[in-house]
Write a structure and sequence with these properties.
The relative contact order is 0.17. It contains eight helices and 16 strands. The chain has a single domain, classed as Aldolase class I (TIM Barrel), CATH 3.20.20. It is an alpha/beta fold. The strands form four sheets. It has an eight-stranded parallel sheet with strand order 3-16-15-10-9-8-7-4. It has a four-stranded antiparallel sheet with strand order 5-6-14-11, with no helix packed on it. Strands 1-2 form a two-stranded antiparallel sheet. Helix 6 crosses helix 8. 29% of the residues lie in helices and 20% in strands.
Length: 301
Protein backbone atom coordinates (compact mmCIF):
# COMPACT_ATOMS: atom_id res chain seq x y z
CA UNK A 1 0.00 0.00 0.00
CA UNK A 2 1.27 3.47 -0.88
CA UNK A 3 2.48 5.71 1.95
CA UNK A 4 0.24 8.77 2.23
CA UNK A 5 1.55 10.21 5.52
CA UNK A 6 3.14 13.67 5.43
CA UNK A 7 5.02 15.65 8.06
CA UNK A 8 4.53 19.36 8.75
CA UNK A 9 6.90 20.96 11.25
CA UNK A 10 7.53 17.61 12.94
CA UNK A 11 3.83 16.68 13.14
CA UNK A 12 2.87 13.60 11.12
CA UNK A 13 -0.52 13.52 9.41
CA UNK A 14 -1.84 10.14 8.23
CA UNK A 15 -2.71 11.72 4.88
CA UNK A 16 -2.26 15.21 3.40
CA UNK A 17 -5.93 16.25 3.49
CA UNK A 18 -7.40 18.63 6.05
CA UNK A 19 -10.38 20.94 6.24
CA UNK A 20 -10.00 24.66 5.58
CA UNK A 21 -10.71 27.08 8.40
CA UNK A 22 -14.18 28.55 8.43
CA UNK A 23 -15.75 25.81 6.32
CA UNK A 24 -16.00 22.99 8.86
CA UNK A 25 -16.75 24.71 12.15
CA UNK A 26 -14.74 22.79 14.71
CA UNK A 27 -15.89 19.46 13.36
CA UNK A 28 -18.87 18.72 15.59
CA UNK A 29 -21.57 19.79 13.15
CA UNK A 30 -20.03 17.59 10.45
CA UNK A 31 -19.21 14.58 12.65
CA UNK A 32 -22.58 12.89 12.05
CA UNK A 33 -21.84 12.92 8.32
CA UNK A 34 -18.06 12.59 8.12
CA UNK A 35 -15.65 10.15 9.77
CA UNK A 36 -13.18 12.64 11.24
CA UNK A 37 -10.77 9.79 11.93
CA UNK A 38 -10.06 9.58 8.20
CA UNK A 39 -8.83 13.17 7.89
CA UNK A 40 -5.19 14.16 8.17
CA UNK A 41 -6.24 17.10 10.31
CA UNK A 42 -9.20 19.27 11.24
CA UNK A 43 -8.56 23.02 11.02
CA UNK A 44 -10.91 24.91 13.30
CA UNK A 45 -12.82 28.07 12.57
CA UNK A 46 -10.92 31.21 13.55
CA UNK A 47 -10.55 31.68 17.30
CA UNK A 48 -10.11 35.12 18.88
CA UNK A 49 -9.35 36.04 22.47
CA UNK A 50 -12.95 37.15 22.96
CA UNK A 51 -16.24 36.54 21.10
CA UNK A 52 -16.67 38.26 17.74
CA UNK A 53 -20.21 38.87 16.41
CA UNK A 54 -19.14 38.97 12.77
CA UNK A 55 -20.59 41.14 10.02
CA UNK A 56 -24.25 42.05 9.44
CA UNK A 57 -26.31 39.95 7.03
CA UNK A 58 -26.51 39.15 4.18
CA UNK A 59 -22.97 37.83 4.29
CA UNK A 60 -22.91 34.97 1.77
CA UNK A 61 -23.56 35.19 -1.96
CA UNK A 62 -23.21 32.57 -4.67
CA UNK A 63 -21.24 33.65 -7.73
CA UNK A 64 -20.18 31.98 -10.95
CA UNK A 65 -17.53 29.40 -10.09
CA UNK A 66 -17.74 29.81 -6.32
CA UNK A 67 -19.05 31.98 -3.51
CA UNK A 68 -18.41 35.22 -1.67
CA UNK A 69 -18.43 35.34 2.09
CA UNK A 70 -18.18 38.22 4.53
CA UNK A 71 -18.83 36.32 7.76
CA UNK A 72 -16.39 38.55 9.58
CA UNK A 73 -14.76 35.73 11.56
CA UNK A 74 -17.72 35.30 13.88
CA UNK A 75 -16.58 33.05 16.71
CA UNK A 76 -17.44 32.34 20.36
CA UNK A 77 -14.00 33.30 21.69
CA UNK A 78 -11.23 31.24 23.23
CA UNK A 79 -12.86 30.32 26.54
CA UNK A 80 -15.85 28.53 25.05
CA UNK A 81 -13.71 27.05 22.28
CA UNK A 82 -11.32 25.50 24.79
CA UNK A 83 -14.12 24.11 26.97
CA UNK A 84 -16.26 22.73 24.16
CA UNK A 85 -14.41 22.20 20.88
CA UNK A 86 -10.97 20.94 21.84
CA UNK A 87 -12.33 18.12 24.07
CA UNK A 88 -14.69 17.13 21.26
CA UNK A 89 -11.89 16.91 18.68
CA UNK A 90 -9.62 14.96 21.03
CA UNK A 91 -12.02 12.01 20.70
CA UNK A 92 -10.81 11.43 17.15
CA UNK A 93 -7.62 10.09 15.60
CA UNK A 94 -6.83 13.24 13.67
CA UNK A 95 -4.53 16.20 14.22
CA UNK A 96 -5.96 19.46 15.54
CA UNK A 97 -4.94 22.74 13.92
CA UNK A 98 -6.35 25.88 15.53
CA UNK A 99 -6.84 28.93 13.33
CA UNK A 100 -6.06 32.11 15.28
CA UNK A 101 -7.39 35.57 14.45
CA UNK A 102 -7.01 39.00 16.02
CA UNK A 103 -7.16 42.74 15.49
CA UNK A 104 -3.79 43.56 17.04
CA UNK A 105 -0.55 41.72 17.74
CA UNK A 106 -1.50 41.48 21.42
CA UNK A 107 -4.79 39.79 20.45
CA UNK A 108 -2.91 37.07 18.58
CA UNK A 109 -0.36 36.63 21.35
CA UNK A 110 -3.11 36.27 23.94
CA UNK A 111 -4.69 33.34 22.08
CA UNK A 112 -1.32 31.75 21.27
CA UNK A 113 -0.27 31.85 24.91
CA UNK A 114 -3.56 30.29 26.01
CA UNK A 115 -3.23 27.56 23.37
CA UNK A 116 0.20 26.64 24.72
CA UNK A 117 -1.50 24.78 27.55
CA UNK A 118 -3.99 23.03 25.26
CA UNK A 119 -3.62 19.59 23.58
CA UNK A 120 -3.56 20.89 20.00
CA UNK A 121 -0.97 20.04 17.37
CA UNK A 122 -0.43 23.16 15.28
CA UNK A 123 -1.59 26.76 15.05
CA UNK A 124 -2.58 28.52 11.84
CA UNK A 125 -2.29 32.30 12.14
CA UNK A 126 -4.79 34.14 9.95
CA UNK A 127 -2.98 37.33 8.93
CA UNK A 128 -5.73 38.44 6.57
CA UNK A 129 -7.34 40.13 9.59
CA UNK A 130 -7.42 43.95 9.57
CA UNK A 131 -4.82 45.54 11.83
CA UNK A 132 -6.94 48.07 13.70
CA UNK A 133 -3.87 49.90 15.02
CA UNK A 134 -2.55 50.49 11.51
CA UNK A 135 -5.64 51.93 9.84
CA UNK A 136 -7.28 48.61 9.00
CA UNK A 137 -4.76 47.24 6.47
CA UNK A 138 -4.50 43.47 6.78
CA UNK A 139 -1.39 42.19 8.56
CA UNK A 140 -0.72 39.97 5.55
CA UNK A 141 -0.49 42.83 3.05
CA UNK A 142 2.68 44.39 4.47
CA UNK A 143 5.87 42.29 4.53
CA UNK A 144 7.24 44.14 7.56
CA UNK A 145 4.01 43.43 9.45
CA UNK A 146 4.12 39.77 8.34
CA UNK A 147 7.65 39.33 9.66
CA UNK A 148 6.92 41.21 12.89
CA UNK A 149 3.76 39.34 13.82
CA UNK A 150 5.34 35.99 12.90
CA UNK A 151 8.33 36.71 15.09
CA UNK A 152 6.16 37.80 18.02
CA UNK A 153 3.82 34.82 17.76
CA UNK A 154 6.80 32.45 17.63
CA UNK A 155 8.17 33.98 20.82
CA UNK A 156 5.05 32.85 22.68
CA UNK A 157 4.09 29.65 20.85
CA UNK A 158 4.61 26.14 22.13
CA UNK A 159 3.13 24.44 19.07
CA UNK A 160 4.50 24.89 15.51
CA UNK A 161 3.19 27.98 13.73
CA UNK A 162 1.63 28.03 10.26
CA UNK A 163 1.22 31.50 8.76
CA UNK A 164 -1.82 31.75 6.47
CA UNK A 165 -1.03 34.11 3.60
CA UNK A 166 -3.39 36.51 1.88
CA UNK A 167 -3.45 36.45 -1.95
CA UNK A 168 -4.52 40.09 -2.05
CA UNK A 169 -0.96 41.27 -2.61
CA UNK A 170 1.27 42.11 -5.56
CA UNK A 171 3.89 39.44 -4.84
CA UNK A 172 3.01 36.42 -2.69
CA UNK A 173 6.66 35.38 -2.46
CA UNK A 174 7.54 38.62 -0.69
CA UNK A 175 5.06 37.75 2.06
CA UNK A 176 6.26 34.15 2.19
CA UNK A 177 9.88 35.21 2.62
CA UNK A 178 8.84 37.66 5.35
CA UNK A 179 7.05 34.88 7.24
CA UNK A 180 10.06 32.63 6.86
CA UNK A 181 12.34 35.39 8.14
CA UNK A 182 10.05 35.77 11.16
CA UNK A 183 10.49 32.11 12.04
CA UNK A 184 7.34 30.49 10.64
CA UNK A 185 7.32 26.69 10.71
CA UNK A 186 4.98 26.35 7.72
CA UNK A 187 2.75 28.36 5.40
CA UNK A 188 -0.83 27.93 4.21
CA UNK A 189 -2.18 29.58 1.08
CA UNK A 190 -4.27 30.96 -0.33
CA UNK A 191 -6.85 32.73 1.76
CA UNK A 192 -9.82 34.16 -0.17
CA UNK A 193 -9.55 36.80 -2.88
CA UNK A 194 -11.48 40.03 -2.37
CA UNK A 195 -14.54 40.24 -4.61
CA UNK A 196 -17.89 41.96 -5.02
CA UNK A 197 -21.36 41.15 -6.34
CA UNK A 198 -24.12 43.63 -7.14
CA UNK A 199 -27.81 42.71 -7.29
CA UNK A 200 -28.89 44.40 -10.52
CA UNK A 201 -32.61 44.18 -9.63
CA UNK A 202 -32.30 45.75 -6.19
CA UNK A 203 -29.40 47.91 -7.39
CA UNK A 204 -27.48 47.28 -4.24
CA UNK A 205 -24.63 45.13 -2.98
CA UNK A 206 -25.32 41.43 -2.52
CA UNK A 207 -23.34 41.50 0.74
CA UNK A 208 -23.97 43.97 3.55
CA UNK A 209 -20.20 44.35 3.81
CA UNK A 210 -20.08 45.26 0.07
CA UNK A 211 -17.01 43.09 -0.48
CA UNK A 212 -16.33 39.50 0.52
CA UNK A 213 -13.84 36.70 0.13
CA UNK A 214 -14.08 34.73 -3.12
CA UNK A 215 -13.57 30.98 -2.79
CA UNK A 216 -14.38 27.93 -4.87
CA UNK A 217 -13.23 26.54 -8.25
CA UNK A 218 -12.77 30.00 -9.78
CA UNK A 219 -9.74 30.72 -7.58
CA UNK A 220 -7.91 27.41 -8.09
CA UNK A 221 -5.60 28.39 -10.99
CA UNK A 222 -4.48 31.46 -9.03
CA UNK A 223 -3.93 29.38 -5.90
CA UNK A 224 -1.91 26.73 -7.75
CA UNK A 225 0.29 29.43 -9.26
CA UNK A 226 0.88 31.08 -5.90
CA UNK A 227 1.73 27.75 -4.23
CA UNK A 228 4.19 26.98 -7.02
CA UNK A 229 5.85 30.39 -6.72
CA UNK A 230 6.02 30.14 -2.94
CA UNK A 231 7.48 26.63 -3.03
CA UNK A 232 10.34 27.99 -5.13
CA UNK A 233 10.86 31.02 -2.88
CA UNK A 234 11.06 29.45 0.60
CA UNK A 235 12.06 26.15 2.18
CA UNK A 236 9.00 25.83 4.43
CA UNK A 237 6.29 23.17 4.04
CA UNK A 238 3.16 24.54 2.38
CA UNK A 239 -0.50 23.69 2.90
CA UNK A 240 -2.19 24.50 -0.41
CA UNK A 241 -5.83 25.51 -0.70
CA UNK A 242 -8.20 27.37 -2.96
CA UNK A 243 -10.93 25.75 -5.05
CA UNK A 244 -10.07 22.11 -4.31
CA UNK A 245 -13.17 20.11 -5.20
CA UNK A 246 -11.71 16.75 -6.27
CA UNK A 247 -8.65 14.56 -5.79
CA UNK A 248 -7.37 15.76 -9.17
CA UNK A 249 -7.43 19.34 -7.87
CA UNK A 250 -5.54 18.33 -4.73
CA UNK A 251 -2.90 16.47 -6.72
CA UNK A 252 -2.24 19.63 -8.75
CA UNK A 253 -1.34 21.42 -5.53
CA UNK A 254 0.96 18.60 -4.44
CA UNK A 255 2.75 18.59 -7.79
CA UNK A 256 3.11 22.38 -7.55
CA UNK A 257 4.93 22.02 -4.24
CA UNK A 258 2.35 21.71 -1.45
CA UNK A 259 3.03 19.16 1.28
CA UNK A 260 -0.65 19.04 2.27
CA UNK A 261 -3.96 20.47 1.11
CA UNK A 262 -7.02 22.00 2.74
CA UNK A 263 -10.56 21.50 1.44
CA UNK A 264 -12.91 24.43 2.00
CA UNK A 265 -15.90 25.44 -0.12
CA UNK A 266 -16.35 21.85 -1.32
CA UNK A 267 -17.48 20.93 2.21
CA UNK A 268 -20.65 23.01 1.75
CA UNK A 269 -21.57 21.09 -1.38
CA UNK A 270 -20.43 17.65 -0.21
CA UNK A 271 -19.68 17.14 3.49
CA UNK A 272 -17.62 14.05 2.69
CA UNK A 273 -15.44 15.87 0.13
CA UNK A 274 -12.23 15.80 2.17
CA UNK A 275 -12.47 12.05 2.82
CA UNK A 276 -13.23 11.35 -0.83
CA UNK A 277 -10.25 13.48 -1.86
CA UNK A 278 -7.95 11.57 0.52
CA UNK A 279 -9.18 8.29 -0.99
CA UNK A 280 -8.73 9.69 -4.49
CA UNK A 281 -5.12 10.66 -3.83
CA UNK A 282 -4.40 7.13 -2.58
CA UNK A 283 -6.06 5.66 -5.69
CA UNK A 284 -3.98 7.94 -7.95
CA UNK A 285 -0.80 6.77 -6.23
CA UNK A 286 -1.76 3.12 -6.72
CA UNK A 287 -2.62 3.76 -10.35
CA UNK A 288 0.77 5.30 -11.11
CA UNK A 289 2.83 3.07 -8.85
CA UNK A 290 3.76 5.90 -6.49
CA UNK A 291 4.99 4.27 -3.28
CA UNK A 292 5.42 7.43 -1.18
CA UNK A 293 3.45 10.65 -1.48
CA UNK A 294 6.69 12.60 -1.12
CA UNK A 295 7.44 11.58 -4.71
CA UNK A 296 4.58 13.84 -5.81
CA UNK A 297 5.41 16.93 -3.77
CA UNK A 298 6.94 19.53 -6.08
CA UNK A 299 7.39 16.98 -8.86
CA UNK A 300 6.51 19.59 -11.48
CA UNK A 301 9.47 21.91 -11.34
Amino acid sequence: MSKTAVTIAGVELKNPVMTASGTFGSGEEYSALVDLNRLGAVVTKGVANEPWPGNPTPRIAEVYGGMLNAIGLQNPGFDLFSRRDIPFLKQFDTKIIVNVCGKSVSDYVDVVEKLSAQPVDLMEINISCPNVKEGGIAFGQDPKAVEAITREVKRHARQPVIMKLSPNVTDITEMARAAEAGGADALSLINTLTGMKIDIHKRTFALANRTGGLSGPAVKPIAVRMVYETAHAVSLPIIGMGGIMTADDAIEFLLAGATAVAVGTANFRNPDAAVEIADGIAAYMERYGTEDIRELIGAVG
